[in-house]
Amino acid sequence: MTPTQRRRKHAWLTLVIGGASSGKSAFALSLAGSATSKAFIATGEPLDAEMADRIRRHQHSRGPEWETAEVPVTVANWVKEKGARYGVIVLDCLTLWISNLVGRGGSSKAVLDQVAILLSAVRQASTKMIIVTNELGLGLVPADPAVRAFRQLAGEVNQLVGREADEVYAVIGGLPVRIKPGRATRRRKRAT
């Protein structure tokens, strides 16, 4: 058994990617299924009234079976310390986490290092982790250099997590499309 096979025996990573208001958060919650211990890592901060309202709506949609942890910056540490307590964890959203890190002075390298630490923590926790992220690269090239740099960084992070993920879904118009098969699909293909 290779090191990759050993680590995947204990953890499962799913990436859910889509545009704004595509239905990716609702789909991520549905992937949690009937797990008895569920955690939701919220990276959004209520910096204005609209965002506070959005956070309230998301909290209401999850229901009481979810334990919510508001973790705008120290996501990797939270997963290291508490991840193994849960059957499933949903991190929503990776893009806001990147924005929070950059907004606190994090360089692209520092952000990529934090993502690598997070991925390591996920693999060490014996849990199912579902990460929600935004696809920012489908629109026009932004005119502002800082926005272009952020879009570039978000794309690099999404690629890194996508490569490491066991399965990846794209959500478009509320419809999920599996773009990276999971373990069960690979087994079925080998059997035929």
What CATH calls the topology is: Rossmann fold
Structural class: alpha/beta
- Sheet with most strands: strand arrangement: 3-2-4-5-1-6-7
Count of DSSP-assigned helices:
8
The CATH class turns out to be: Alpha Beta
Low-confidence stretches: 1-8
So, CATH architecture? Answer: 3-Layer(aba) Sandwich
The figure for the number of domains is 1
Give the integer mean of the pLDDT values.
Answer: 88
How many whole angstroms does the radius of gyration measure? 16 Å
The outline comes out as globular
What is the H-and-E element order?
HEHEHEHEHHEHEEH
Describe the 3D structure.
It is a single chain. By secondary structure, this protein is α/β, with parallel strands linked by helices. The chain has a single domain, classed as P-loop containing nucleotide triphosphate hydrolases (Rossmann fold, 3-Layer(aba) Sandwich). It is built from 8 helices and 7 strands. It has a 7-stranded mixed sheet with strand order 3-2-4-5-1-6-7, with helices on both faces. Strand 6 and strand 7 form a beta hairpin. Helix 4 packs parallel to helix 6 and helix 5 packs across helix 7. The longest helix is centred in the C-terminal third of the chain and has 20 residues. The radius of gyration is 16 Å and the shape is globular. The N terminus is likely disordered.
Properties at a glance:
alpha/beta; Rossmann fold; seven-stranded mixed sheet; about 50% helix; disordered N terminus
Strand and helix map with partners:
Blueprint: H1 3-10, E1 12-18, H2 24-31, E2 38-42, H3 49-62, E3 66-70, H4 75-82, E4 88-92, H5 94-103, H6 108-124, E5 128-134, H7 145-164, E6 167-172, E7 175-180, H8 183-191
Parallel strand pairs: 1-5, 1-6, 2-3, 2-4, 4-5
Antiparallel strand pairs: 6-7
Helix pairs in contact: 4-6, 5-7, 6-7
